[in-house]
Amino acid sequence: MDPEGAKASVSxxxxxxxxxxxxxxxxxxxxxxxxxxxxxKLQSAQFxxxxxxxxxxxxxGKIEFRYVHLNKTVTTxxxxxxxxxxxxxxxxxxxxxxxxxxFPEEQKKFPIVALGSIWKNGHxxxxxxxxxxxxxxRAFILARSDxxxxxxxxxxxxxx
Length: 160
Hints:
The chain is of the alpha+beta class. The chain has four helices and eleven strands.
């Protein structure tokens, strides 16, 4: 039995069809015009794709996204394992940008995390793209991938 007395429930992910354009993350001025707060480290962001995302095509097109919400605090490794178990791959940085530009109110509800790409830099080793809303304002920040993710986080995922 779970130490807290009950096993955490897993919610069913919502479906979102999004027109994805790759390369938007490289345009810092466009990011600043879309979000009230943009991590200044994104001016020189160079994301590397991880495992299951290395072979994806980067042609513009429609992609169906789902949330993976575990309703408990988890590590990145635990979140990635659950995403894989459900037959998905984690979304990457450019996909998260397209998603939140087309569904801007979503990130005001809860933090949305893309675990499929990692930014490595002296300022933030192994950071991932993370969107949230606070006080009605939208933010695009980098968060360390070795963080523990709060139960409110949704992990953006794509069917494999």
